[in-house]
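assembly run, all chains below
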Amino acid sequence: MSRIGQAISEIQTLESVSREDRWMNRIHPLSKLCLTVFYIVLTVSFSKYDLAGLFSMILYPAIAFMTADLSVRDAFRRLRAVLALVAVMGIANPFFDRTAILSFGAFTVTGGIVSMISLFMKAVFTVFAAYLLIATTPMDDICYALRLLFVPRILVTLLLLVYRYLTMLMKEAGRVTDAYLLRAPGQKGIHFRAWGPLAGQMLLRSADFAGVLYESMLLRGFTGEFRPTFRHSLKASDLLWPLGWASVLILLKLFPLVSVLGRLVTGNWN
Amino acid sequence: MHMADALVSPAVAGVMAAASATAAVVSVYKVSQEDNRKKIPLMGVMGAFVFAAQMINFTIPGTGSSGHLCGGMMLSALLGPWAGFLSMIAVLLIQCLFFADGGLLALGCNIWNMAFYGCFLGSLLIWRPIMKNGASRLKILIASVVGCVVTLQLGAFSVVLETLVSGITELPFGVFAAAMQPIHLAIGLVEGLITAAVLIFVYEARPELLWGIDTQKENRMPIGATFGVLGGAAAVIGGGLSLLASSLPDGLEWAIGRVAGVEELESAGTGAYAAAESVQESLSFLPDYAFKGSESVLGTTVSGIVGALLVLALLICVAFIIRAFRKKQQASTEE
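ok done. output:
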């Protein structure tokens, strides 16, 4: 599948998964958005050498993934977008930070190795948390939550518009590229002579489309903003879910659960 | 260049989010002041267009790789800095949520690195001054390439600073910057050329779609400004980039070295060889790209600038000759 086709399929899959009628999907979007941001802030605030503390943060994504019945494989696939820059920085750490932290016989674990592992763990946990949000909350609901957080209506309207017409224009870009490549077999990408006309014509069509879109929006009573609404009524779980998790996460941050469990098993309290 | 959440500390993310939010609030105010409701759908569709167009791979001639257009410069050239900035925020937020391209916490950093520089510096300090006296193909090309290169360099440098201040990487500042800046220079050049190609097409088909362009004005770049831009480019390439020139032997020297064991063959020292050598010695005031009897960096830089300016002067002479020849040819065909 082409890159554009893959992106369209990803958006459509996420859209359909987020609209499923599941318990997690029915939780208020503002609760999920605030909890996600809180979890990410807490996760990245762990020291780069605190692997045990950081590992305890796996609890939220692990339980939430099971509750929401989401595919871990799909979440791992999303990592490819962030992996390049994280890898460049993480892989350099063992070469520059050679402070010995632990040693198992002949093998010494340096600070650089620990900080590299913690960087990768943070990347995985934060990407998983963001995936949890978008896979259980449709875009309309996220925009509704953003309005509740006083994000300006122009920005929210814009977000909805970009999202709404993204798939359409990506399909158009896919058709244009396919048509071009069918007439230029064996060629990778668009030849430089066609850079301007190919994307330029698409841009002009998009600008014309924006004019038609505006007229149709006016006919349907557009007054300058969309008013996203939440389909479900407020319930206790909307408050209990984020507050419960926030309490657990704060406890995990303050109380080294993994270290205590390890010591309990090994009996090593020194 | 999208930063993941793992690459920033909460403090840095908070500061950058506050800075980006301030720019967003000002942009919302400016766009509201325009009171142009028609602009909102245009902003939405253009944002979606940039997102979609960035998925198209444009082949880079002479290489096996491809590039895509520069979102910030493109949107600000079409919508202006304020509306372009807001559209870029929407694009970056969707990229972050749907494709994990950049983190939710790092959104403030990504908006600053990619949207702020591209939309504000690119349009207000580069695009608008260049288009001040009317637009032309050359001006659009220069504005797009310079805009993309400068804004990408600033964006990449901000990534370096934000990551180092967050204490994420052990990479020393110099090594990290040396790894980030050159690659983004190349990316900026390619993105600038692609963006220029699209904007030139729009300029020729529908110039009223471009921001900051007065279609009534004379659209030729003054000859002084043209020479200024070319001279500046020659000085930057010759003076700045010459420092990056390899000290290793070039292809010919390497080949001679493999055959003869020395990089440069000694001349016979008699007849035509001796005469040519004495003429060259008296003419070349910067032998081996340095001052006579010196190996200094200054010498390399000066020789780079001098060489670039000489090539430029030669090209200008050739251009004048061709122009005169064409004029003559045109006059003879008219007769």
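The first strand of chain A starts at residue 100 and ends at 104.

Chain A is about 70% helix and 5% strand.

not gonna interpret more than that til we talk
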